[in-house]
Amino acid sequence: MRIHAIRRLGNALAAGLPLALALGCAGSGGDAPVKVEPKHIILFIGDGMQLEHEIAASRYLTGTDRGLVWQGFPTQAQVCTWDVSTYDRYALASGAANYTDQGFLPRLGYDETRGGALPCPDQPTPDPGYFLTPLRKSAADSLPYAPATDSASAGTAMACGYKTDDGNIAWLPKDPKTGGNRANDGSLLTIAELFRQHRGGGIGVVSTVPFNHATPASFVAHNVSRNNYYTGRSGYTGLGIADEIIHHTRPEVVIGGGHPQLDNPSYNTSKGYLSKPLHDHLRTSQEWVFAERQTGVDGSQTLAQAAERAVREKKRLFGLFGGPGGNFEPPVPAHTPGAPSLQRGSLENPLLKDAAVAALQVLSQNPKGFFLMVEQGDIDWANHANDYRWMIGTMWDLDQAIRATLDYIDHPGDTLTRENTLILVTSDHGNSYMRHNPAKPLGHGELPQQVPTAPLKGRLVWDDRRETLVIQRGDGSLERLAYASPWSYPGGEITYGTGDHTNELVTLAVQGTPSDHALVKAEQRSWYRFGNVLDNTQIFRVLRDASGLPSVGALPTPKP
Q1: Strand 341-343 vs strand 478-480: parallel, antiparallel, or unpaired?
Q2: 8 A C-beta contact, residue 205 and residue 42
Q3: Which end of the chain has fewer CB atoms surrounding its CB within 10 Å, N or C?
Q4: Predicted model pTM
Q5: Any idea which fold 36-449+483-558 has?
Q6: CA 3 to CA 5: how far, in whole Å?
Q7: What does the domain layout of the chain look like in residue ranges?
Q8: Mind listing the pLDDT tens digit of every residue in the chain (560 residues)?
């Protein structure tokens, strides 16, 4: 698009013209209307990442506050992440009605007068208790939590454009058995499914945590519980998330954690992410080129070789890696002032940049384009643990993956260019309520002193649905753990306020064509009347409209 056309587009939008009309006015003289629809859509998600974490990583890696690669993208915005469960907690506390798809109040989900019109530290949080005070979801709720989305409902919002309850994977709230816009069973069409159905494009998901964990699953699976990882787990008899991904959705690329080698070598059906029948199927499949973690073998090389073979043989690519917790062992930073240094967490797992490039190599073979979601999921795990060093390593991993993707796009000889590729970088929610001490800023290559706290007494169990630790009483009932960070930072450079998710604003960065940026700006301030803010469900709308996909069903509509 010519420079004068871009200026005319901006002027038209500023004047309040509809987007389609503004685009139609973008030409000069006898030029036809110009709209370059991207064939390639790449969504990066830093799970559990908020601005304070971005600044922490940028200071360590570059010595500046805004040195991460996506912080230089042309469009920068903020995103509200609340889900139905969050909304209902605030509603009960204020005496308001519960959430409904038609006629809800966005400000009940996020109130900028209490949470801030900008994320901290760009604006100090007016009321910290707004994020940290536990609230009940209903009168019968015996275990209150601070209001915040989980990764399943946040992923569903971005993948499907719908708000839902925590724990739901591409499914309507309240787990109905009818309705939805997919199969009249409560399930929802995802942006990946729409891209494949209407464009004939390829689809892929990449994650550093298990491939069927909440975020990747939200784009390529459907379930009323994120914990139904596979058929047979804990007695679940329905279609498991892994089973659906492998046998039904069958993306062109799946790369992630969840390998049973270190996480569940006996295939104990009370835990783990993959059943033995599914693992055996992948190892013998003629449809997939299967790459997996192997003792003493470089995971990056294993994956690169598998991607080359998948391209050569025109097959799908499945990469299964992961460590004792199911996730890739994260990169490890060192305190080296003036010269940041990191080491791979494990030779046997690929770095996220290697996984992203492998996915691009396979997906770019489709002349009709592709949709790819790439998640650095360990950011969230690090922040649950209030582990600053772990967080820095994972943030570097994400930054490197985005840089490698831009290099791949700019490399001549493939089908990807900056004119036909849209990149979005965002987070699904905040986590940890981490704050910097402005009186003690950390510099280039610097890490704070980090000391483990004394272990807590009692039986602690992990509440997978809430993604937090709770105390299990003798009768089996659960009690919310009074917050105590597992790490302390005696230097006072940083503080943590919780080990849970928060309802704080997160960031959105966009790299694309002028029409892509116009789509984002058109969504801003339509739900919220402050800042450059949009809702996480509106990310779906941007992805849909940038891809030229049709609307399917009535999306949530707030009260005017």
Answers
A1: unpaired
A2: no
A3: C
A4: 0.91
A5: Alkaline Phosphatase, subunit A (3.40.720)
A6: 5
A7: 36-449+483-558
A8: 333 333 333 333 333 333 333 333 333 333 433 444 568 999 999 999 999 999 999 999 999 999 999 999 999 999 999 999 999 999 999 999 999 999 999 999 999 999 999 999 999 999 999 999 999 999 998 889 999 999 999 999 999 999 999 999 999 999 999 999 999 999 999 999 999 999 999 999 999 999 999 999 999 999 999 999 999 999 999 999 999 999 999 999 999 999 999 999 999 999 999 999 999 999 999 999 999 999 999 999 999 999 999 999 999 999 999 999 999 999 999 999 999 999 999 999 999 999 999 999 999 999 999 999 999 999 999 999 999 999 999 999 999 999 999 999 999 988 899 999 999 999 999 999 999 999 999 999 999 999 998 665 555 555 665 566 565 666 666 555 556 788 999 999 999 999 999 999 999 999 999 999 999 999 999 999 999 999 999 999 999 999 999 999 889 999 87
Say whether 445 sits in a helix, a strand or coil.
coil
- Measured between alpha carbons, how far is 317 from 338 in angstroms, rounded to an integer? 40
Q: For the range 525-533, what are the long-range contacts, defined as Cβ-Cβ under 8 Å and sequence gap of 24 or more?
A: 527/80, 527/106, 527/558, 528/80, 528/106, 528/107, 528/110, 528/112, 530/112, 530/117, 531/78, 531/112, 531/117, 531/118, 532/76, 532/77, 532/78, 533/77, 533/78, 533/79, 533/80, 533/112, 533/117, 533/505
Residue 393 token pair:
């390593």
Count how many residues are written for the chain.
560
Unique residue bearing structure tokens 């009309």? 21
Structure tokens at 78: 């903020």
